[in-house]
Write a structure and sequence with these properties.
Keywords: Membrane, Transmembrane, Transmembrane helix. By secondary structure, this protein is mainly α. Helix content is 51%, strand content 0%.
Length: 278
């Protein structure tokens, strides 16, 4: 309405609109999410768990990490492996910001930071929403800014936000559907993070391989679902780091930009133009 009446829109209002769009779509997707669960239900199996694993688990000799029935749902999610990787780094730095670690084995609760593999329906819903969210800041291309430098930085941040949405989305989709499941199945056949030995390995090469094996999986329990190939980890980390810088600037500019606004930014919408007799 403000734009229709020629009134200035602030970047803070634009950022708020972008979050509202995501919030509304998230609420729609969660409309059937149960909210009255207050107790657990224990299921007792008539068959010994070891027999179940012998008969149905593709790799019964492999150690289980979360529950003995890990093989029932062995999907590897792009978001999940990176989320656990980065939160584990924060824990090692003694900055447990997001979630408390799961120490019980088998698990005695459902973790809140769970990122399952999305299906085609979810992808079809998420794609236009993410594109809308990623391009939202481009609408402020010709907004008023306190200084030319801030204007230029906003344009750079908004361009990268859109580029990150497109390139990052394609990268995540490829890793989610193809690369990570393939690497997980390959790793389950071999010992976790094994180092390939050659007939005459040099000490330097051996050290590099050991370092790469440690970097791929920093989970304290060496869960193979937490292993991230370095060719996935490095580009993802670079993309996300640049995105965090851009988002930090957008949020900062939302507030520091309030120090200099056009006069029309302080005017209210004349709702009587749209709703008669209001």
């Amino acid at each position: 309405m403000r734009v229709a009446q020629g009134l200035a829109l602030t970047t803070l209002e634009l950022t708020t609109i972008s979050f509202v769009v995501v919030f509304l779509v998230t609420s729609f997707c969660w409309r059937f999410k149960p909210s009255d669960i207050s107790s657990t239900l224990t299921l007792h199996a008539n068959t010994d768990i070891n027999i179940i694993r012998e008969q149905h688990c593709p790799y019964p000799s492999q150690e289980w990490h979360e529950t003995p029935l890990d093989f029932v749902c062995d999907d590897v999610s792009f978001c999940a492996v990176h989320w656990h990787y980065y939160t584990e780094i924060l824990r090692k730095m003694h900055i447990p910001m997001f979630s408390r670690p799961m120490t019980a084995k088998p698990r005695d609760r459902i973790v809140s930071d769970n990122f399952p593999i999305t299906d085609l329906k979810a992808d079809c819903i998420a794609t236009p929403v993410l594109l809308a969210f990623g391009s939202m800041f481009m609408l402020a291309w010709n907004f008023h800014f306190p200084s030319p430098v801030e204007h230029l930085l906003w344009r750079i941040a908004s361009i990268y936000n859109l580029v990150f949405t497109v390139i990052g989305g394609l990268h995540a989709g490829y890793c989610d559907k193809i690369l990570l499941p393939r690497e997980y199945k390959r790793r389950m056949v071999l010992p976790l993070s094994t180092v390939k030995t050659s007939t005459n390995p040099s000490r330097q090469r051996s050290c590099l391989r050991n370092l790469a094996a440690k970097l791929r999986n920093i989970d304290p329990y060496r869960n193979p679902k937490r292993e991230v190939p370095l060719r996935v980890l490095f580009p993802t980390s670079v993309l996300c780091a640049a995105y965090c810088v851009g988002r930090a600037y957008v949020l900062t500019e939302d507030f520091i930009g309030l120090r200099s606004l056009p006069a029309s930014a302080f005017q209210t919408v004349s709702w009587s133009d749209y709703v008669p007799h209001l």
